[in-house]
User: Fold these one by one.
Assistant:
Number 1:
Amino acid sequence: TYMRGGTSPAMKKVRGGGRSKVTNETQKTWRGHAEDEGVSIKPAATLGNVAVPADVKVPVVDTRESVQEGECSVRLLSLMRNAEAFDRERLGYRFVKRAFDIAFSACVIAAAIVPSAVLCAAIAVESPGCPLYRQRRVGRIGADGRPREFTMWKFRSMVKGADQMKDALLAENEVEGPMFKMRDDPRVTRIGRFIRRHSIDEFPQFLNVFMGDMSVVGPRPPLPREVAQYDEWAMQRLAVKPGLTGPWQVGGRSDVDFDDMVRLDLGYIARRGVMTDLKLILQTVAVVFTGKGAA
């Protein structure tokens, strides 16, 4: 099965010279100062000509192969707990990060009330139904070892009943691993294509940030059925609070497969800090305007 595999077919294609939309700026972000943070980046794992973390020694193990070569008796959550314990020691950074999340999300919510009302009306006119879409997502693993779920909000970009239509489209999935991405998804409305391209559909998640379910920057929250397919290596990305944006969003979005997304997330967890978060936010603004890498 996939979760016991090594390198995905998509990754092999990229290594062979396939097109990648990961930017040079992303390369600078994840290679710069890596040594100071205990992160070793090897050129063996690349997206086009851009290196991604291939061997993060502390506090995360960042290759599936290194996990598989370890002791088989190790519990599924053990590596994730190591990364989680490392993060809990950073009290100053966590305090600043939460204060920023509250202040920034409050400003965005206040500024977006009127435009959001107009967009909701347009969505309802094109496709009858509630203009807001809610979905259960996994935040992080709790102390009891169980995934903490929360309700994540979006502007609805698909026709009503899109979830029930998904099973019929699984064969068209364009991403390796426990994710579903389809560039020409027939469920997406005309307005939906525009707001998805520019990530406007994600704006209601600032409510999740304000309430503390998410952070502005962090790994994207997965679906419960996706987490059920995670192995020990992938489970490490649940060691921290999920985010509205992160390295995956600025590093290619739908042009990046599952393994590469996990590598980027674990690289972020190992060396995240105030300056890294601010750089990712600025890079996200550029991606929102250009729509680069959107499905």
Note: The two ends are 25 Å apart (CA to CA).
Number 2:
Amino acid sequence: QIQKSLQAANSTLQPGDMRLIEAKDPESELYCLLELIKKYAKQEDYSQIAVLARNHSDLRQISEFLISHNIPVSYQSSLDVFEQEVIVLVVKISKLLYHLSRPTLKRVYELLPEILGHPAFNIPTQQLWEFSREVFAKRSRWEKHMDLKKFPDVAYYMHFFKELSNVSQALPYRSVFDYIIGSKTFEERQNLFDTLVLKSPIKEYFLSQEDLESYQSLEALKSFIEAIEAYYATDNFDCLQALNYFEIYENSRLKLNFQFAIGNAQSCQLMTAHGAKGLEFETKIVKICYQEIK
């Protein structure tokens, strides 16, 4: 028989108080939480305050709210790289670049609407519709409709994809990846005097804000490229090898997890009840739930 005793780190506990607070709606609940954290914080040190919630979706909502009100938070969770919006888009563009260099363009026509319709590209729906209608009506290849005057936004990114597809056949994927996310740009000569700078919108759309979503996207991108490099044991792999790597995960339904974590030693601790087991804090705030009863 195993004898197991549990002993608190603090041998003597100071008297405290326990309160049940009922909020009238979710917004009021968040502001009540904010006031409690401010009340029990020791100057700028929030490290002895723990906020517990049922699941990570609740914790994400709380963290975004507290960060927006200048409360430092410590929060971590395990996420699947391939489920992140920015990675889904990067993979689609990678596939597009490969198929643009193939004899058949069937996959190109399937991928283009999905990519150009993403909010990151900010292309008016009317322009996308008119472009698609013209290509379909004339039964012609999309390259013949790259008119910057008639379809400025669509044509701009068409030029970008075509240029990147051409160079991607000679570049390692790591360099292509930098073009895909917008860390590198192309310059396309239009005439003797004008040069068109071609750039992906991904970096500006996903990484330009100092918020939780931008940080998560950045960590996903880092984990994504590092995982492929680790798989091939080199950073000198090409686009086809990258596509083969994507296919392995898609066909086997594997997960590529990465640890998403923010915060420092003085941050307010956000965690699930499971994650809080065995830990002690001076102030515990448990977010049970908000449910409207009719």
Note: The beta strands are 49-53, 73-80, 186-189, 195-198, 257-262, 268-272, 283-286.
Number 3:
Amino acid sequence: IALLLWLNEQGKNYLELRENAKVINQLTFSTERKYMATLVDSPIQQKKVLYIKGAPEIVMGKCNLSPEELTHYNADLLAYQNKAMRTLGLAYKFIPENSGNDCAELVNEGNMIFLGIVAISDPIRPDVPEAVQKCQSAGIGVKIVTGDTPGTATEIARQIGLWKPEDTDRNRITGVEFAALSDEEALDRVLDLKVMSRARPMDKQRLVQLLQQKGAVVAVTGDGTNDAVIRASGDSYCVLAVQSPGLGNKILASSFDGDKNYTVQPFFADIDGDGSFSLITISGNSFKTVRVYK
């Protein structure tokens, strides 16, 4: 939406441009590739054009950039990430008519022309730091697992009060680094980890399973698509809850594998941070909270 609003401010009609460009082939985004590609027959250029967008470091790797250009763009990228901004790299190249239409093959050939980096501000909601603090006060550990870059993920963690000045690299890791750890090494660090960046669905699944091996009860929230592999494993549950003043804790949405029967031991948490506790029970397809006062 941010990109569409920016394009509109430039006086460009996206729908008109989109409808007039015949899409020949597409490669959808994946957390493994970290980019998407679209091959179009451009009425403006009168040529086939391949466009890609995705993680800047991945997109830049497909382009012919000099060491000086890479240094310049990486400095810009770091500055954006230190402001917790989401970043996208954009590139294109013209495709000869007699060439194939396989987007993956065309991208892997390289020689893309780098257009630049788009930085999008996605501010933290004002209520998030307090929510994180309440969870921590109730003895609930909070971890960020995201596809964002290490710089962006760490800055977001700092803004919500999760990342502290005394934290070190032991408290954060990338998906690739996490996958490279043996189970013994990962088990040694898993409780200390606060931020996992550039994560893939299988990284999150492994994190959940290792935490459970440590005896933790793990609740996972997410957008559903990337978390499907975790739900399918039957080793975790996904719950999205909201607390409203005067209404206690209400379930906004919950997602369970209908073919599985989940039973988690009831536990208490001081969700409100006021010395009163809620009894939380999860069994089958039900999630209940009952306020228990002193």
Note: Residues 6 and 12 are 9 Å apart (CA to CA).
